[in-house]
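Sample intake — Sarcosine oxidase subunit gamma
Collected from: Streptomyces humicola
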Amino acid sequence: MADTETSVSARSPLAGHAARFAAATRRSGGAVRLAELPYLAQIDVRLDPKGPAADAVGLALGFPLPTQPNTVVHGGGSSALWLGPDEWLVVGRPGTRAELEGRLREAVGDEPAAVVDISAQRTALLVAGPRSRDLLSHGCALDLHPRSFGAGRCAQTLLARAQVVLAVRDELKPGFWVLVRSSFAGYLGDWLLDAATEYTGAV
């Protein structure tokens, strides 16, 4: 059975922005690409990074949880983003939240750990293209130059005063994920469209 979030009756927080994102992407001539990535599985994991639960989760995912601050690891259709010394956000494909949560819960077993499905809390935006860093820099204080924020990096930060989790996609898929709380998604979508007018020529 499909996850509730991906059912026909479900509506993602930025469904109403899809046509505007597509139009802005088209008008930019490839300079920027804006799109929502709806219904991604998002599982918050808290555990001791040096304990057996961390090793078990790594085996379940097929790659170890990142232990270096503000880094992200991709593999096997999932990604793990470092959010704190004992906290990670595991992101998976749409429709996999129940399976992913169950797999991680089974992995930690009786070890002291927390595995919580927070998929409905945030939606994800894709910001890609050669000018994507310039676009995000309009509203983000981080140094987004590749030497400082390149492949394998993520951060909890502010974008246009909205709290987001910003992550660089893997090297084969240039661009950024912007994970934003659903209640702020419309505001941030409007801001991105406005900031992108420099590259789209829209008025």
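Post-analysis note: The first strand starts at residue 33 and ends at 37.
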